[in-house]
Amino acid sequence: MASHLDLEEQEQLDQLKHFWNRYGNAISWVLIVIFGGFAAWNGYQYWQRSQAAQAAVLYDEMDRAVKAQDLQKVVRVQEDIHGKYGRTAYAAQASLLAAQALADKGNADAAKAALNWVLEQSGDDGVKAVARLRLAALQVDAKAYDEALKTLGTVFPAEFEALAADRKGDVLALQGKADEAVAEYRKAYQKLDERTEYRRLIEAKLNALGVNPQAGTEPATAPTEDKK
User: Fold this and answer.
1) Is residue 88 helix, strand or coil?
2) Does residue 140 contact residue 171 with C-beta atoms inside 8 Å?
3) 18 Cα distance to chain centroid
4) For the whole model, what pTM was predicted?
């Protein structure tokens, strides 16, 4: 009986060896990929959490530097967060803060650079939309109207479409293109909820261009009668 079991076990062992020789290598690689991928995913998640936590500390430093109007520290923190944690959401948010602080102090070029960094590096469409609107504002201040229109000439997330149209209207009005400005202001007016205070500002802009948005294309002031 013992010898019979030994022979049976030997046959099973031989079959297992044959199977492993034929398929074992491929199975090993599949397992390596699966478990390696699982380990990498866990490692990436840990890396992301670690990066975000450290980036949050620098973001707080940026916030304090902006409130203290310490531009040297603003620039230094911005360089640190870009260099070390550029792939985190905090880096883009910190750049928006830095751009505002730099613009307020008249350093438009540095502010534009910070905003362009957001446009190039951020993966958040909402954050990029904010950066575009602010960049367009700086370009308008510099009377670079064509550049501003180019900055605004992209697809915005739905919640930013009204703001983008309003900003385009401003640029076109400054260029003396009243009809085109009215068209953009109308877009903005129609996209905003009627209870929004901002809608009244756009209505005022349309009125200034002789348009009453509540009456279609009817001008805001009644035409005078021809004198005979």
Assistant:
1) coil
2) yes
3) 56
4) 0.70
